[in-house]
Amino acid sequence: MINNNNIFIFTSTRADYGLQRWIIKEMQKSNKFNTYVVVGGTHLLEEYGNTIVEISKDDIKNIIKIPFLNTSLDASSLTSSIGNGLIQITQIFNTCKPDFMVLLGDRYELFIMAIAALLYKIPIIHLHGGENTTSVIDEQVRHAITKMAHIHMPSTELYAENISKMGEEDWRIHIIGAPGIENIKKLELYKKEEILKLTGINVSNNTIICTYHPVTLEGEDSVKWQIKNLLEALSKFDFQIVFTRPNAEVGSDEIVNMIKKFVDGNPKAYFFDSLGSKLYLGFLKYARAVVGNSSSGIIETPSFSIATVNIGNRQEGRLQPESIIQTGYSVNEIYKGIEKALYDTEFFAKIKNIKNPYGDGNTSNYIIEAMEEILKIPKEKLLKKRLDFEVKKNEWHKYF
Question: Is 0.85 surpassed by the pTM of this model?
Answer without folding.
Answer: yes
